[in-house]
Design brief:
Pfam families: DUF6882. Helix 1 crosses helix 4 (115-129). A hairpin with a 4-residue loop joins strand 1 and strand 2. The protein has one domain. By secondary structure, it is α+β, with helices and mostly antiparallel strands. Strands 1, 2, 3, 4, 5, 6 and 7 form a seven-stranded antiparallel beta sheet that branches. The chain has helices at residues 5-30, 85-91, 96-101, 115-129, and strands at 37-41, 46-51, 54-68, 73-76, 110-112, 133-139, 142-152. The termini are far apart. The protein is built from four helices and seven strands.
């Protein structure tokens, strides 16, 4: 049974509150903000943080989607043909949010969206994936949102 608008808003508040706690924990436990550079691989589903060119921290990630400031649009990674097959396959479970909520935004690969809504969609995705938090990579005129999963031993 689909969620009502009120249930959807309550679930969004819950997901957003949890995301804020997860982000604080991610920053405190791993000190991500102290790194000079980062690198990611769609094919391998990893995000690395480097200091002096050396990898100091690596996470498994699932690519959630991208938001374009030029067109004010969102594209789920599972529906983005410019993502690798592996990245699209890993993010396909996010389509389940359509069954959970009954809301079409989780079934449409591409739609109009402002930046605040992009963060809300990411909060839903992080909760659904049981991720440790999120990372946002600026990519020209768009932002690429990733769910940070487990750290890899260094």
């Amino acid at each position: 049974m689909p969620m009502t608008d009120i249930q959807f808003d309550q679930y969004l508040d819950y997901c957003y509150d949890k995301l804020e706690m997860k982000q604080a924990e991610l920053l405190e436990s791993y000190g991500i903000s102290r790194f000079e550079e980062y690198w990611y691989s769609q094919e391998d589903g990893i995000l690395q943080f480097k200091l002096d060119g050396e990898v100091k921290l690596e996470f498994n990630v699932i690519f959630i989607g991208s938001w374009s400031s030029n067109s004010d649009t969102w594209m789920w990674s599972w529906g983005n043909e410019s993502m690798t097959d592996n990245a699209r396959r890993q993010s396909a479970s996010l389509k389940e949010l359509h069954q959970v909520s009954g809301f079409d935004i989780f079934a449409k690969p591409f739609f109009e969206c402002d930046e605040a809504m992009a963060h809300e969609l990411t909060a839903f995705a992080v909760e659904h994936l049981n991720a440790k938090g999120m990372y946002i990579s600026p990519d020209g005129k768009s932002l690429l949102f990733m769910a940070v999963m487990s750290p890899n031993p260094s």
